[in-house]
Amino acid sequence: VARVDDQVELWVADEGAGLSPTPRAVERPVGSSGVGLEIAAAAAEAAGGHLVMPPSGEAGTRIRVVLPLVL
């Protein structure tokens, strides 16, 4: 977690298979509904923020959650 100007940034990472640059609905892990990222993006946007997914050539996924700083 870091404060950057008038925002808070939170990085979330895992070491799974990673996300395809062109996600396909049929390629979900067993037991996954495939909507977690959409829900996270909607929650961030509802709070005035957004998600950033930098490209990664490696396994795993890193997502930066950017939210406005409210004091």
What does this structure look like?
The chain has 71 residues and is α+β, with helices and mostly antiparallel strands. It contains one helix and four strands, in the order ββαββ.
Ordered list of secondary-structure elements with their pairings:
Layout: E1 2-4, E2 7-14, H1 36-46, E3 50-52, E4 61-68
Antiparallel strand pairs: 1-2, 2-4, 3-4
Strand numbers in spatial order across the main sheet: 1-2-4-3
- Fraction of residues in helices? 10-25%
Query: How many helix segments?
Result: 1
Strand content: 25-35%
- General form: globular
Rg from C-alpha positions? Answer: 14 Å
Terminus-to-terminus distance: 16 Å
Give the oligomeric state of the chains in this entry, treating copies of one chain as homo and distinct chains as hetero: single chain
Poorly predicted runs of 5 or more residues:
none
- Structural classification: alpha+beta
- The pLDDT mean sits at 81
Biggest sheet details? 4 strands, antiparallel
Give, in order, the helices and strands.
EEHEE
The beta-strand count equals: 4
